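Async update (no meeting this week)

Hi team, since we skipped the sync, here's where things stand on the single-chain job. The sequence we agreed to prioritize is pasted below, unchanged from the tracker. I ran it this morning and attached the output directly underneath so nobody has to dig for it. Comments welcome in thread, and please keep replies under the output.
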Amino acid sequence: MENILTYLERNGNKSFKQLEFTEIDNVIFSSISYSEFGGIISENRNFMRLYDALEIFLRKYTIKDAAKLGIAQTDSYKIIREIVGLKRYRDVLVYNYKYIGDKEKQFCAMTFKLRNTFTYVAFEGTDHLLSGWKEDFEMVYKFPVPAQEYAIRYLNETVNMFDKNLIIGGHSKGGNLALVSSMYCHPLIRFKINRIYSNDGPGLRLNEINSHEYKRIEKRLIQIIPNYSLVGLLLRHNDNFTVIRSTKKDILAHSVLTWIIDYNTFKRTKLSNLSKKLDKSIIIWLDNHDDATRKKIVTALFKALEDAGVYNLYDIKKIKTGFKVIKNLTSIDKETRNLMFDFLSFNISYVFDKKNNE
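Output:
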């Protein structure tokens, strides 16, 4: 089946005048942001050809380096490897690469520009650092989280009056950052935004969905989710999804290289019953638990991980660390432990209860 790599092979020699910016180009740029460009791309408006940046990147890193970081980084590497040398992206400029990653926060963004054609601001999703995943979970009870604040600041500092056809996008958490930064950026920048892409990105709390800031950009928001989405259905969202086919029927559907294309667009389909039921179960659970309860669960979970010495996702795979995590979870106070169990058992039972079939 055809995917993004097929799209690149077929359209690599077409300029953006011959084939205008597509939803697939959006996913390509958002995916590139997962790769490490520190020391390669400038942290300000010193433009660099994307072609040159990618060549340096490929000399510096291997596919094995990407695989150590995760599926999103591996997908990014494969896409970068295909793009180098293609006419379509040869004149694209890249600049303002920002990466912040420590025990408390994780944020990354970069900007692509083709003169007089488009400016695409890409926000990276969650990487291998535990701090990034912690921020994802904190979104259920807190707004804004640090990455969202950084995203708003980044957009305000990056865009200028000469930028045309401004497009904001990201994959996974990056899609949420694209949305939030567009909601709260400077009014003159918000006026220039043409489209906002959330590529299988989580939504917002009910307070933010009902806000004036959300309503004024809602019509420019394009939400792309695979038919077996999980991440893209977290929290609240409007129902105006573009549902596309993935070759996977589980969490791996989050990988952009599993997304099937139909010539120059993603192949449309309907949301799976499993994803529909999971979406409903999460909303019901959120409706029945206030922010304080949500915070208690998230704080306890990540304290157990941090106290066990988990700094990134790969630490969890270590047998000794894994036992420490289990020990820490079992020592959580009974009330919080029951809340965590109730969350898991409710969602699992709701999804697989035959009475909830569509």
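Quick observations from my side:
Strands lie at 48-49, 93-101, 106-114, 118-123, 166-171, 193-199, 221-226, 241-244, 261-262, 265-266.
The CA atoms of residues 128 and 314 lie 8 Å apart.
Reply here if anything looks off.
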